[in-house]
Amino acid sequence: MPIMGGGRREPMYSGSDGDVGMKKNYKGKSMRLGGGGRFKKGEDALVKKGMPKKEAGAIMAKQGRAKYGKAKMASMAAAGKARVAE
Hints:
With 86 residues, this protein is mainly α.
């Protein structure tokens, strides 16, 4: 059973400067790698399907570690925590 929607994309938008593309933020988090937006969006999708928030976060972290590796995922998490502390 696939956890993520595989191939589904965000709806396109047209910015005030005429820029057309993917949304840049999700609930205040950047959709760029390491920004936390992708993690939060996946976590929210799982919660919406009825999964507890803690389990949804654990599944998203496991997928991230599988895709980016332990070290890269740890560095992204540390950077996110540092941003929150500022």
